[in-house]
Design brief:
By secondary structure, this protein is α+β, with helices and mostly antiparallel strands. It contains three helices and six strands.
Length: 200
Amino acid sequence: MKASGKLLGLIGSAVFAALILPRMGVAADQASTREAGVWQKHELSFAYLGFTSTYSCDGLADKVKLLLIAAGARQDAKSRPGACASGFGRPDKFARADLTFYTLVPAAINSAPGGDQVAGIWRPVLLAARSPRDLQTGDCELVEQFRNTVLPMFATRNVADHTTCVPHQESGSVIGLRFESFAAAPSGPHASPQAGGSQP
């Protein structure tokens, strides 16, 4: 039963990706126009509370950084293990991670004075099982909490959330979160979407 449940979860993620990715390709073409943006700094103590998966504090920090970069945070994002009762590499029911990261906000809606402007674009993001590669179905509740706690710190639009997490089991859980994120525009023909821009 457990194996068949995992298979159903993988099939659900594959179907979601098959339906969404073609639309995201169109969105990428429509979102390629550059506009000025300003970096905003964020600091957060992220406390994970979930029923299905348990993380060590260092494991949680690594996974949250993966989500930060995927969502469009600047490449220098820092995610450090928080104060945990368990030692390094040991699962902790109250795992924490201390986050310091920058997100890009369109200059037109940025209310803070000053700051160097950076060329930004709206780029499509898909969070699903294996997208990014190290994201797994068991991370479903983490994605839900990231969506609720951290994603509002990003400039996003066209959010479509089809994530369904079944507590205490992976069977039937599906990660399906897509949106457009305002991120730094590539600085050259082979640059990543996060490249370029001055550092505040």
